[in-house]
Specification:
By secondary structure, the chain is of the alpha+beta class. It is built from three helices and nine strands, in the order H-E-H-E-E-E-E-E-H-E-E-E. The protein has an eight-stranded antiparallel beta barrel. The radius of gyration is 20 Å and the shape is globular. It starts with a helix and ends with a strand. 25% of the residues are buried.
């Protein structure tokens, strides 16, 4: 297209078409509880072993996730249950929450801290981490009930170094409020 006015009109229409679904998507707050297994290896046998109770340790937690038209921000707290050490972890999350055909993709990153006691997450030199929280969820019919599954990968970053990641699989259930 050699006509700059025509090119500008076409680009404006394309931008409006791309932005329209996000603009139509109202802001919401999701309150979720989740549970699953962590300390897994990347293999089909590892996930099967976790389901059978012979591998990994339990993980229970909850989060608040604000969806602002496809952009997500939130906080999470969880506790390891089982094993020798049962630390708490708290994190701040951010990322993208596009919705496709009624299924919300959750493409989130997180930064947080782990500590042995809940209060130590906030005021002690606990272990720091960065992580990824990929997942999918959907609303159950016209109700506020949201059900999903996801993963959690956390890299310890204490002392300025990246350690070996922890892998987790999660199931989650919550309520979404417009």
């Amino acid at each position: 297209m050699s006509n700059p006015v025509l090119l500008l009109r076409v680009l404006t229409m394309v931008a409006a078409a791309v932005a329209a679904p996000a603009a139509a998507h109202a802001a919401s707050l999701t309150v979720e509880g989740y549970g699953g297994w962590q300390h897994l290896e990347l293999s089909r046998q590892s996930v099967g072993g976790a389901i059978g109770g012979s591998e990994g340790t339990g993980l229970l937690g909850g989060d608040l996730l604000l969806d602002l038209g496809g952009l997500g921000a939130g906080v999470a707290v969880d506790k390891t249950v089982g094993g020798d050490s049962e630390p708490w972890a708290g994190s701040i999350m951010g990322g993208f929450l596009p919705e496709l055909l009624g299924v919300r993709l959750e493409l989130l990153g997180e930064i947080g801290r782990r500590a042995h006691d809940f209060g130590d997450i906030f005021d002690s030199p606990g272990a720091t981490f960065v992580g990824l929280r990929p997942g999918v969820s959907f609303r159950l019919a016209a109700s506020p009930l949201r059900i999903g599954v996801g993963g959690l990968v956390r890299w310890p970053t204490s002392n300025g170094e990246f350690g070996s990641p922890d892998y987790s699989v999660l199931g989650k259930i919550g309520f979404e409020f417009p």
